[in-house]
Write a structure and sequence with these properties.
The chain is mainly alpha-helical. It has one domain: Up-down Bundle (Ferritin). About 75% of the residues lie in helices and about 0% in strands. The chain contains seven helices and no strands. It has helices at about 15-20, 25-45, 55-80, 90-95, 105-130, 135-165, 165-185. Helix 5 (about 105-130) packs across helix 7 (about 165-185). It is globular, with a radius of gyration of 16 Å. The protein starts with 12 loop residues before the first helix and ends in an 8-residue tail after the last helix.
Length: about 190
């Protein structure tokens, strides 16, 4: 059973060019995104403590994302880059969340599927970063992240399938893929993950 659907549109070549032109800023944003991803997984645990079937995977995902943050932070330290004082607003995620249903159950499904789509986009972008870097250690690091993000994309769909019929999950996921394509295409291109 396929647990996710590919992204709707590829990232623009201008995006990877912006990242390669200002890799230090990209690392700062990447660190922020890893912190937010860890917090997002734990927010599911806090908001849905009755969903016992998925709590272990949510905790594992949160820890893994925090480990990614630690690795990115070490890279930043090696390059003399500091963390930003405050995490900026993520217009990409904000635009996706605005499109969520408002009912508790429907919103639960939407948030799981948004997480899947965001992780799948991250995998696509980390793959591009890995392919465009020349430093062998950085290439290896971003290849590892690309594989991990792709796995997370699957995990959130699998979680949704615990609680919702397969047809509902995949129909809504297709809708989210189209929404994400629209959102990503409308964003300003900058040296950031989203």
């Amino acid at each position: 059973m396929k647990l996710n659907i590919d992204i709707g549109v590829p990232s623009k070549p201008e995006w990877i060019a912006a990242v390669m032109a200002d890799f230090d800023s990209f690392l700062q944003d990447h660190a922020d995104c890893e912190r937010k991803a860890s917090a997002m997984a734990m927010s599911f645990v806090a908001k849905f403590p009755d969903r016992k079937e998925i709590i272990p995977e949510l905790i594992e995902t949160a820890i893994e994302e925090l480990q990614h943050f630690e690795m990115v932070y070490k890279l930043m330290q090696e390059r003399g880059i500091g963390l930003v004082h405050s995490i900026g607003e993520d217009l990409y995620v904000k635009a996706l969340i605005k499109r969520c249903h408002s009912g508790r159950l429907e919103r639960f499904l939407d948030r799981l599927l948004i997480a899947s789509v965001v992780e799948t986009r991250g995998a696509e972008r980390f793959k591009l970063v890995a392919e465009n870097l020349t430093d062998p250690d950085l290439k290896k690091f971003y290849k590892m992240l690309w594989v991990s993000e792709a796995k997370h994309g699957h995990i959130f769909v699998k979680m949704a399938l615990h609680y919702f019929p397969k047809e509902q999950v995949y129909k809504r996921l297709e809708w989210w893929i189209a929404q994400e394509a629209e959102v990503i295409d409308g964003l300003e291109i900058k040296a950031a993950l989203h």
